[in-house]
Amino acid sequence: MQQENPHITFITPGAPVATATHGGRAKCLQRLVRLDLPVPPTVALSFDEVHRIASGQMPDMADLLAPLDVAHLLCVRPSSEDPDWGGPGAVLNIGMNDQRYAELCERIGETAARSIYARFIQSYSINVARLDPDMFDDLDMDDPEICQQALEAYEDEAEEAFPQDPAVQLSGVLRSMARAWEGTSARLLRQAKGAPADAGLGLVVQEMALGLGHGECGSGVLQLVNSTTGMPQITGRYLSQSQGRDALRSGAEALFLEKDPRGSSLEEKAPEAFEDLKVHAALMREKLREEMQIEFTIENGAVHILDGVRVQRSSRAAVRIAVQLAKDGIIPKQEAVMRVEPRALNELLHRQVDPEAERDVIGTGVAASPGAATGRIVFSAAEAQASAARSEACVLVRRETTPEDIRGMHAASAVLTERGGITSHAAVIGRGLGLPCVVGASSIRFQMRKKMLIAPDGRQFREGDVITIDGSEGEILAGAPDMVEAALDDAFQTLMAWADDERDIGVRANADTPADAKTARNFMAQGIGLCRTEHMFFEPGRLTVMREMIFADAPEDRRSALEQLLPMQRADFIELFRIMQGQPVCIRLFDPPLHEFLPTDRSGLRDLAEALNLPLSDVTRRVEALGEYNPMLGMRGVRLGITVPEIYDMQARAIFEATIEASRDGDAVVPEIMIPLVSAKREVELVKTRVDAVAAAVRTEQGEDFDYRLGVMVETPRAALRAEDIAPHCHFFSFGTNDLTQMTYGLSRDDAGRFMSAYVHQGVYPEDPFHTLDADGVGELLLLGAERGRDAQPDLTLSVCGEHGGSPESIAFCRKAGMDYVSCSPFRVPVARLAAAQLSIQDKVG
Ligand code: PEP
Ligand code: MG
After folding, report:
1. pLDDT value at position 280?
2. Is 801's C-beta closer than 6 angstroms to any atom of ligand 1?
3. What ligand 1 atom has the least distance to the C-alpha of 737?
């Protein structure tokens, strides 16, 4: 009995068919059979059987054909474990021969019979006999003699008569499909799609419903949702007198399904069949717990369901479909949360190049900040600002960006840099602003002085030319392709709320400005995990004061400049605290080397000399003196805080005064103050003493009490190793995995882009460690630091605030390491929330 043969199995409700042994299509057909849908009789061949066929051991064809009606033609379709792994194309109309042709001429008419026979000869010749497809080029499918001509062409080329025995034809088809799957190119293709090299292929042999003949006959596909939006909408196509997926061929005069003002529809032509299809599709949706596209044939008005495949969908549709299935009680909410790939949310959060649009790619680089934007090329921050003032979208092109470019970045629609990697300045700021950004685009020649970009194909793009930056794909496109807008719709909000119900690790945002904080709040971040205060000093009125402070000779001069900065900082913090409404805000004290605030070109130096009323030579000498050979490892972070303590004093005062002010009209604010670049316990002791003294002074002056928490950014390997010494002085540790990665590898985060792809390509690193947390090395430091810190201070709050905080793999690591929260760019917050929820659901359901 075939039902009991696990390798050649007639599909019945109880037959031993499984996805892991017979493939997804066979299993789906069994489900449709169980639903009593009109599925033509089908035999499934297991992976093992197909493997045997590929190696030349053919099954007993009589046995295989026994449950099928020999009066019908047959088709064979592939059934791989995962439909995305592909497979050889289906072969239809097996069993067609001279005798059948004569019978079909009687039954369905000569034209239809001729079309079937001629197409089968062609398909058999190409797919099975492996003859040259060109041999049919000169044949005219409408010629009444076409079958005869095709048969002769076959005989000439194959040097044998066209096989007439259906069993011989079928065995030829099975063998060729089995072998095609095991061929080298198919293996490589599968591997590229993530399939194991030895993935199995099942085959299904199905009686054909013809789709050609008398009465209403044809074939098509139908689904109940729109693949782009996910909204309910019956979509698909139907073509009378057709087979397979003919209706989807471009140029086919296919009908709409539902009544449609643009043309005639199946609903009008065959209303009963259309009704049946809708009912079948709804049943499939409910019972298969998925939006399915059904492939159907109509034969003299009767519907046959040939197959069901998961509806192709955009990310936006994926969210809506999952939410609607849960709302309809078809799947649990947890499953809806699991069904959406976290990174796919990026597509909803940002404008994207329309997937249908033509892409004229002129260069590629690192996809540093997702989304796409079009604008005219500008080569400086000042031009970007001028362009914004004219309400003209622009793309800021720089060799690399520095803090001086921040305002230009705010003004630009997108950023392109020649240098840099995933954690370089442009990338970090771009992600923070939700600004599409491609960095390290070294295939393009940047001629900054000539204000020109030269693409690898020689095309030149000058200032004012329109280009598009696709920061999701890391591509630079010429011109302005069509875009699809961001879609933060109700379905997205619902899914995120369900995710939050499941999540067991906090998600905060890295936010430096009020605008960032508002974005963070919109995306429901649970506070700010990192506010990089240095960005606040680049506001136009402040930069000059900042420079005065840097140039001050005497402590009094410095203090006077800082006094001017104090009210500005205080106002910044008041605004942040108010926007975050009682949620935690972690403010990092000043981190970068001072010289980053100084001009680099001659005209900037002249302006500065003017502003400070100093000779140009004096200013130039002082700027040079502040330069360092290796500024990232030089006088920055806490080192600056200790050697120029007035800066941190001013910042602490601004934070405390803002705390009192913002607490007056809302919840009590408990600020978190974070010390950057710590590597020794004594650094923390010294800063803590001064910050505590400032707090005491502010309390006394204002007669108001407040709490605050002091912590350390663990971003040097030594801080992680000596966590035991450092933790007793801290309320929290936040791991700065950007610098920690840089210092653990000894790898410049700004320059690694130049060789990173070669390194990853040759397997030196499995991934860019600035992108995906290096769990083995940097991860070990994280675990050590967390464990040693908590040993010394059990209440220590632990988090990660480097760029890794937003990546799903890193969140898994952080959860395992017992972190309390992760903090990432505001636009990555939803991705992090969903990824964290999925991890916790996985743990719950095992
Ligand atoms: C870090 O080093 O990981 C970090 C978050 O700080 P920054 O990127 O500002 O150096
Ligand atoms: Mg850092």
Report:
1. 96
2. yes
3. 3
Residues near 337 by Cβ (< 8 Å), separated by ≥ 6? 322, 495, 498, 499, 502, 834, 837, 838, 841
Which is it for strands 292-299 and 709-714: parallel, antiparallel or unpaired? unpaired
Total domain count for the chain? 4
Count CA atoms within 13 Å of residue 811 on its CB side.
Answer: 29
**Entry pTM:** 0.82
Q: Which contacts of 454-457 are long-range, i.e. CB under 8 A and separated by 24 or more positions?
A: 455/362, 455/363, 456/362, 456/363, 457/362
| Ligand 1 pocket member 176 (CB < 6 A) | no
- Mean pLDDT check: name the lowest of 27-36, 401-410, 589-598, 741-750: 401-410
Question: For position 255, what pLDDT does the model report?
Answer: 80
Domain that includes residue 401, residue range: 351-484
Residues 112 and 35 occupy one common structural domain: yes
Centre of ligand 1 from the C-alpha of residue 388, in Å: 29
**For residue 109, what pLDDT is reported?**
84
Q: What is the best residue among 714, 739, 822 to mutate for testing ligand 1's pocket, by most ligand atoms within 8 Å of CB?
A: 739
Q: Is the beta carbon of 715 within 6 A of some atom in ligand 1?
A: yes
Per residue in 804-814, pLDDT (tens digit) is 999 999 999 99
Question: Which residues have a Cβ under 8 Å from the Cβ of 718 and sit 6 or more positions away?
Answer: 679, 680
Q: Is 49 in the pocket of ligand 1 (CB under 6 A)?
A: no
Nearest CA to ligand 1 atom 9: 532
Given 452, 484, 516, which residue is the final one in a domain?
Answer: 484
pLDDT attached to residue 783: 98
Q: Are residues 737 and 796 in the same domain?
A: yes
553, part of any domain: no
Which residue's alpha carbon is at the smallest distance from atom 4 of ligand 1? 736
Q: What are phi and psi of 83, to 5 degrees?
A: -60, -25
Contact between 353 and 468 under an 8 Å Cβ cutoff? The reply is yes
Q: What is the CATH number of the domain that holds 749?
A: 3.20.20.60
Ligand nearest 734 Cα, by number? Answer: 1
Instruction: For ligand 1, atom 1, name the residue with the nearest CA.
Output: 736
Compute the average pLDDT of residues 148-163: 91
CATH of the domain at 183: 3.30.1490.20
Ligand 2 geometric centre to CA of 743 (Å): 10
Q: 3-state SS string over 820-843?
A: CEEEECHHHHHHHHHHHHHHHHHH
Residue 637 in contact with ligand 1 by CB distance below 6 A: no
Do 288 and 176 reside in the same domain of the chain? no
* Protein residues placing their CB within 5 Å of the ion ligand 2: 715, 736, 739
Are both 46 and 76 inside the same structural domain?
A: yes
pLDDT in tens, 40-91: 999 999 999 999 999 999 999 999 999 999 889 999 999 998 877 878 888 9
CATH number, position 290? 3.30.470.20
Cβ pair 437, 426 in contact under 8 A:
yes
233 and 118 co-located in one domain? no
Q: Which two tokens stand for residue 348?
A: 């909803």
Which residue among 638, 712, 713 is best mutated to probe the pocket of ligand 1, counting the most ligand atoms within 8 A of its Cβ?
Answer: 713
d(CA 802, ligand 1 centre) in Å? 5
Residues identified as active-site: 425, 801
